Amino acid sequence: MATNSPAQPAGASLSGQVNATQETLRESNLALVARTIFASINGISRAGVSAEVGLTRATVSRLVEDLLSGGLVREEGQVSGGPGRPATRLVPASTLCALGMQVNATYRICRLMGLDGYIVDEIHVPGEMVDSDPREVLSALGNDARELLARSLAGRRLVGAGLALPGIVSEREGLLRRAPNLGWTDAHPASLMGLEDLVQLEVLGNEADLAAFSLARPAPGRTSGPSSFIYVSGEIGIGGSAVIEGEVMRGLHGWAGELGHMCVDPRGPSCPCGSHGCLERYAGWRAFEVGAGLPHGSDVDDFLARHRDGDQRAEATLAAAAEALETALVSVVNLLDIPTIVIGGHLAELGAIILPGVEEGVRRRALSGRFDGLTVTIWPAATADDPGRAAAGAAAAVLDEVVKHPASWLGR
């Protein structure tokens, strides 16, 4: 026969619930205050935070003190303009930092980023990574990371690490499924880098997704530029990503945005991905090199010189790339209803001779312009030739979680 459990002291359960609710409320308010400080471009006072979030100045002041003691924010200068004494300005601190890493077909890079969004230090190693051994490359990347942390981590706390790779990534499994331009299949980067004793790999993502994240969030917790856009990265191949309201659209399995492998001609040349007529076969940098008869390792200036001289191969290559890019972007704009497109890499560097025509073609053919009068705009990314944009995005994605959940980092 069942027996009743011992009676609980009156109010014990209610007290526990109240304490839990109060702690949850404090964490929520702490995150709200942190997001407000980090979102401010030039810093903000306690009074400014209070006015923006709707909490009392006393409550905001207590929460700010927690963030100051935890090393997440710092006081700098003064904010003036109102009555009374100038107020102290609150800005993100740089004590906490994250390691961002990236492997691409022609280089590997490590960047150490502070919570304020500034790059503390980096190691950039050029090299041929096409058809490479992932064990060798990722082991070397791990050694780069160790060197970087040994020389630049002093006086800082390492939050975590992120890695950007040019391929299909299963984030939940921590697995690179396929990187056609590297020749890699089913690689587990965390185990191959050998950094478990120093830092956890918190973020593993596609290169274009993380580059797009760095454009949408130039510093942890702060948005910039258009809130929704399509990003196209120009490397040996072509990467792509869609950002909607400041968030990267990853799809059901995290594989969304493979713009470079959109088919623009089913009868076109074969692609390492296993398909035919993919966009990157026409608009990737290797297509520019081969099409214009340039030696391997040439750069955009070499192509532009050929184009200025009226080289027919260079002109034909540019025309084919423009047509393929226009075809792909029309489909993407029609599918996603995002009329703003940001171009990076070699396509941005070639912007003056390729983007105006592509923009005009997409405007003419996109449904949004035909029926709703929306204007499709295409513009080159700032610092288009920054090879470490995805590495910065990987670090920023790690640090963004600190801004979202600051209570987890207090008292560490």
From TrEMBL:
Family: Belongs to the ROK (NagC/XylR) family.
Protein name: ROK family protein
